[in-house]
Amino acid sequence: MHYPKTRQKLMSLAVAGACAAAAAQALAQEAPAKAAEPEVQSVVVTGLRQSLLSSMNLKRNSDGIVDGIVAEDIGKFPDTNLAESLQRISGVSIDRSIGEGSKITVRGVGPDFNLVLLNGRQMPTSNLGDLNGRAFDFANLASEAIAQLQVYKTSRAETPTGGIGATVNVMTARPFDRPGMHSSVGVKGVYDSTNGNLPGDIKASRSTTPELSGLYSNTFDNNKFGVALTGSYQERNLGYNTAAVSNGWKGPFRGDDNSWGTIPKGSATNPPGASDLYSVPQNLNYNFNGVKRQRTNAQLTLQYKPVDKLVTTLDYTYSENKIQTKRNDISAWFNFGGSNSSWTGGPVQSPLIYKELLDGTSDIAMGGADFATKTQNKSLGFNAVWKPTNDLRFELDTHHSTAESRADSPFGSSNTLGTASFSRGDTTADFSHDFPVLSIAGADFTKAPQQVTGSVFTNGYMKGEVDQTQVKGAWKVLEASELKFGATVSEVKNRSAFSNQQRDTWGGATKPSDYPSSVWHPESVRQYFDHIDGSGSPSLFNQFYTFNFAQVRQLAAAASGKPELYLPKTSFDHDARTTEKSNSAFVQFNTDWDTKLPIRTSVGLRYETTDVTSTALVPAAVGISWVSQNELPITFGDPTFTTLTGKYHNLLPSFDSDIELTPNQKLRLSLGETIGRPRYDQIQGGTTLDSLVRANGGTGSQGNPALKPVKSKNLDLSYEWYYGKQNFFSLGYFRKNLENYAGQSQFDATPFNLHTPVGGKFWNEALANGCTTADTTCIRDYIFKNHDGAPGVTRGTDANGHATGTIVGQPSDPVANFKINSFSNQKAASLNGLEVNLQHMFGNSGFGVSTNYTYVHSGLKYDNAKLGEQFALVGLSNSSNVVGIYEDKNFTARLAYNWRGEFLSSTFDGSGPNPQYVEAYGQVDISIGYNFNEKLSFQFEGINVGNSIQRVHSRTKQQLESVTQQGPRYMIGARYKF
């Protein structure tokens, strides 16, 4: 089921990869017979070279374009993180979180549109960092139980839908793949240097943490029974420090537009011209983050073969990823009164120096956070393969899998406790270097002691569930042909919910005297950014205070007299639930053609239909009150669930062909269609109304469960040359034409049938007595004068003697109209690219190199000189890998460099429709292994040994979004095989 089709005439190469031996044996029975077999050549390789050889044969022997990584040995995957392994495959780039690979982008297609399978089964997703996304987080899975990663870059009728960029199949070890007893135990010590570069209040007590792993696999009773048990536990203490314009950039504005009061005042160098676009910073923030992580993985696999023609497998996979985060920060909020500023010039302007003149009473904000999350993944599956004859094969596979993320702290899944000293004078931000330099005049922490201001306590929850049953068959129709067929029934559920307990008392919630001075701990800024250009500036405001979050929270709760406001809510304000029920069937015909140049073709067709039911908890609107000239706030009752539905179907053809130009050269052509389902927030049910209605109506938002998935029409061409036992070169071209991307749309509706006094009986009476529709003051005065005390009318008088009060819509009044913002299928894009791969081993020297480069291009790019919301492809970037290896009987060494070019990561920042570009990033990793004997081995690894930093900017390089300093981590370990 899970392995690509293997050609018998190339079987001798696959035999050399011991990790793929069992798969090759199983699939050889399916492969069409050949008239003649080439002479079998013995190839003996071990360790890392064996892994590279098996990966090469996986690519060579597949239908379509497939890349992969095969474990060096059972329980010994080449990388400690699966995403870090995947990035070494051409066309695969990764997003990092806390210094580890997390999500993948493949061939310019972002994480939401890549499908991840576990042993051929669709996996649920859960990520509190993206409550409404579909991206799989590889940080949840340890690598010890993984036997193989397969990346299908072309469409296959037999593969579940959802992957436009690629479908990634994560395969775990099974006892029948390796008959006999195999067991090992491993231990590592991890030293993360980043933990040492943190303030004391958030630093973990130790920078060195343990990792333990074990594996046991055995078969019994003449290989009739099999059991495999793997487990691992890993701890990591780390830190990272970020300088950021954390609320985004205000703008862009035209130079002749001063409607927001943002035009710089006073002396300015090279200020924006009338037609230039410019932006100004919302704030400047330095934050310091200490993180502890504990990851537990386990898998139990039981296999039983009652007869030779029937193999059954029952497996259970469990993972838990617990993360605790502590943060301190210092920031300054700008009020758009820039003076004595200098600018970059050009049609898109950015400040190099941005200064605001203040009177010494503004706040120097110093916040803190202390929260924790827990993500659990569980998967229970059953598989049965039955071969009644040599020409016929059936397979049943069913599973129930869940992914659940929740808060793991009494303080919620995320929080912020704001504190401040109100002593900020003139404030300057210097954006001329990689590091943004904040300068503050007049700060006096003695005169204006620190105090708690506002706070936010968030409680987030997400759960994904997949119930899926697949039935497949394969029938060898002729000597060189095979018919594959099957059907799938699946139900995918997603629930995402959250609530906020927020106090917007940023001007001060309590008094400085409520806090002993001993709770504030002096710190300096510069030392935590010493690897970023510009942090050494003598103008840097280099002092701030950290604090123990739990201690200060308790003091603030006591001082406020409202302790419940300093804890997260126990119920959810927002709760969205989506169910997708899909039925599908496929047929695929594979055949070999006896032509001068051997040709293999695969033609497939998949049909799929999906029903979507989306329900959301939304505040129930119960009335509209007219309280001032043009303000009609909605009165909300208890939240209620509302439901929307949708349905779509797709017919997805696929065609693969490969031609053997010579026994060592292949030319491949693949055509097909794939789909990627919309994000959950785009199909979220329920209508949420904005709280304030105007005289001409109101606004709101809702998802659209009837959205069609993004569809991609794909073309792939590749040339492959296997010029040695372990050497190959490949060149590939791909093109994707994508349609049905979701864009913003708007429609008119009357949700909740809310009655508005605008246009009602009293309104019309006022118009008949001399008022105009534009003079709402006249209309209100008339109603209060003539109908005070009538149903819905409550009059008051302000200090100037004018009538005030409320006028509530009555059942006889018109129903209010709302402009509802939603999503519709309206965007299209195309992208194309090239992939180059080279793997070369230098004879018997032990040295080798594996390298690749991917170029991706699309005409649909973000226009930095354009105002308003834009659609552009995110994640699109060039990438490259160079891996040098050395291996002999005792030593294995690898030096890997991974590079990803600049790419657009988002079209929105914290302020609005502004781009976020992740700048080009390169990382160096090393690993060295030593085999003491056949059973005992030692290993040393270094991750990010070059101490690379990551920087994100907006429309220009000077419009910094964030720059993060992390650091290297090192691991030393031992592994013993029994």
TrEMBL record:
InterPro entries, per the entry: Beta-barrel_TonB, Beta-barrel_TonB_sf, Plug_dom, Plug_dom_sf, TAT_signal, TonB_rcpt_bac
Protein origin, superkingdom: Bacteria
UniProt cross-references to PROSITE patterns, sorted A to Z: TAT
Keyword Membrane: yes
Localization terms from the record: Cell outer membrane
Pfam families according to UniProt: Plug (PF07715), TonB_dep_Rec_b-barrel (PF00593)
Main location per the UniProt record: membrane
Transmembrane feature ranges: none
Signal peptide residues on this chain, from the entry's feature table: 1-28
Keywords from the UniProt entry: Cell outer membrane, Membrane, Receptor, Signal, TonB box
Record's protein name: TonB-dependent receptor
TonB-dependent receptor plug domain mapped to chain residues: 59-166
Gene Ontology, cellular component aspect: cell outer membrane
TonB-dependent receptor-like beta-barrel domain boundaries: 412-945
Membrane among keywords: yes
